[in-house]
Amino acid sequence: MSVLDALTAGALEDAARRRESLPLERLQAIAERTPAPLDAARILGTPKADSPGPHIIAEVKRASPSKGPLADIPEPASLAARYAAGGASAISVLTEERRFLGSLDDLRAVRAAVSVPVLRKDFIADEYQLLEARAFGADLVLLIAASLEPARLRQLHREAEGLGLSVLVEVHDEREIDAALGAEARILGVNTRDLKTFAMHPERFAELRARIPAGTVAVAESGVRTAADVARYRQDGADAVLVGEALVTDGDPESRVAEFGRAA
Ligand SMILES: O=P(O)(O)OC[C@@H](O)[C@@H](O)c1c[nH]c2ccccc12
Questions:
Q1: What NCBIfam families would the database entry show (predicted)?
Q2: CATH code (residue 234)
Q3: What residues are labeled active site?
């Protein structure tokens, strides 16, 4: 079993466990009382008025399977508020519990702290997880093309949009781009870290960018350490850049987000 399959299986088990204490009907009732999501696809697809740099999607990430613990983050809400103060266009919150040490409580706390779109970053493979995202205040969810059959990707994509959520479809090769476009993805993220081997391939973004049609938001994900890395993705045609580790390990995340947001 690949790491990605194991992460997805674990996330599904965790969701099944949560469902025992919060059945679908009750979750649905909570989702109905939650304000309508922001149109993240429109926000990320509109160039920034005040800067030639890309939109920055700043991630709340405590740990990763490849690196282990990265940062403590006792208060995800205050970290997210600093990201937003630095001009982040969206906040990504890892909610996967086992290897990324995240939770839906983190998502809820971040939602309450910022007014920019919030992404639920997890290994989503069923409808219950989508409804959780909606009920806990996400505007945007991640679907990973490598972990879903094309028909299933299309189905979950449609379901998410039916809930009012935007979807970031993550890809790492041409075949997955085709699957994402088949699912009518409006936001496409090229993860330059291979989730099966964790190897970094920053050049993959430029290689795949040409396959992403105009009008579809192109996001470059992973491996950013410096403003020069952001500038490179921007020059390669990224509308948005998603950054995790470099921000959670920085003593001044607000300034760092601002610096990245100007990199062009
Ligand atoms: O910490 P980095 O190298 O800046 O990477 C962030 C983000 O791209 C990464 O966390 C990520 C991209 N796709 C994912 C899917 C699941 C979990 C995590 C991820």
A1: PRK00278.1-1 (NF001369), PRK00278.2-4 (NF001377)
A2: 3.20.20.70
A3: 59, 61, 121, 170, 191, 221-222
